[in-house]
Automatic annotation (TrEMBL):
GO cellular component, one term: plasma membrane
Similarity field: Belongs to the binding-protein-dependent transport system permease family. CysTW subfamily.
Assigned keywords, A-Z: Cell membrane, Membrane, Transmembrane, Transmembrane helix, Transport
Domain ABC transmembrane type-1 stretches: 78-284
Record-linked InterPro entries: MetI-like (IPR000515), MetI-like_sf (IPR035906)
Organism lineage string: Bacteria, Pseudomonadati, Pseudomonadota, Gammaproteobacteria, Vibrionales
Protein name: ABC transporter permease subunit
């Protein structure tokens, strides 16, 4: 009769192996709730939208996409959304760049106060923001009546595209400031002083030194601003009661409408919107790869 007995050295070897395995798997276990949450609220809806976008009258077909691309009304919604998104992102990025550049030159307490206010105002969007703009710049708004007395406002309409653009720019600026603020740490004050000693003007310093260094952050922020604007819904709906033709209003009306309930058509619009954002992101990555900072990092 033979019996196998583990030697003390073998048992000591097995325990550390088990301990190492547990240390490796413990972080993965903590990620399980996050992975489940990500699947339920990100991947699963995306898969559902992608699959149902090809369902038309109970059959697998491309008719939903054909209907969207053949509809002048839907194409107008895409055009309006892109117009608002691109221009609000450009204005928001320019204003935020100037603001962050100025913040680097002020007192620390004032800088912290401005950043705290910016962080707070970045959450001021949707229905409260629309209501605030109606009070200030609506048809009988306080500033509207004041400026019209001096003939400064003209035919400004808060409920048209220019009014929506003003609201979009307002909620784009705080997000752009928060995204760009850390990126400006890459700039050294000595660089501008050195450029000035070499005879460079401020505009030349920004064109030849600062903007090339900041270009990855600027491009990345621009893409995030476009995605933020093109997905805006509450502000537009609260301000125009759903009467302005943007793509988020069209998707919502197709999903929640009483008379025209077409979730599969809404899914097709959503897929086209995702493809459009993916294309913009690819262009952004290509521009970043061609930027000065990327070329310098490869050297």
């Amino acid at each position: 009769m033979s019996s196998s007995v583990l030697s003390p050295s073998a048992s000591r070897t097995a325990k550390p192996t088990t301990s190492v395995w547990l240390k490796r798997i413990k972080p993965a276990i903590w990620l399980v709730p996050f992975a489940l949450f990500f699947y339920l609220f990100q991947l699963a809806p995306m898969i559902w939208v992608l699959f149902n976008s090809f369902i038309y009258d109970g059959e697998f077909a491309l008719d939903n996409y054909i209907e969207v691309l053949d509809s002048a009304f839907m194409l107008q919604a895409f055009g309006n959304s892109l117009w608002l998104s691109v221009w609000s992102s450009i204005f928001g990025l320019v204003i935020a760049t100037l603001l962050v550049s100025s913040l680097r030159r002020v007192d620390t307490k004032l800088r912290d106060a401005v950043i705290a206010f910016t962080n707070m105002s970045s959450n001021f969007a949707g229905v409260p923001l629309s209501f605030a703009f109606i009070i200030i710049l609506g048809t009988n708004g306080a500033i509207t009546l004041l400026l019209k007395q001096y003939g400064l406002l003209g035919d400004f309409d808060l409920y048209g595209k220019w009014g929506l653009l003003a609201i979009y720019i307002y909620f784009q600026i705080p997000l752009a400031v928060l995204l760009l603020y850390p990126a400006f740490d890459a700039l050294s004050d000595d660089w501008q002083a050195a450029a000035a000693l070499l005879g460079a003007r401020t505009a030349q310093y920004w064109a030849k030194v600062a903007l090339p260094v900041l270009s990855p952050a600027l491009f990345g922020t621009f893409i995030i601003l476009i995605a933020n604007a093109i997905g805006a819904y509450a502000s537009v709906y609260a301000l125009t009661s759903g009467n302005y033709n943007v793509i988020t209003i069209r998707i919502a009306s197709l999903v929640s409408g009483d008379l025209f309930l077409e979730p599969n058509l809404a899914a097709a619009i959503s897929v086209i919107l995702m493809a459009l954002l993916a294309f913009i992101t690819v262009i952004n990555q290509w521009l970043i790869a061609k930027s000065y900072a990327a070329k310098k990092s490869r050297k």
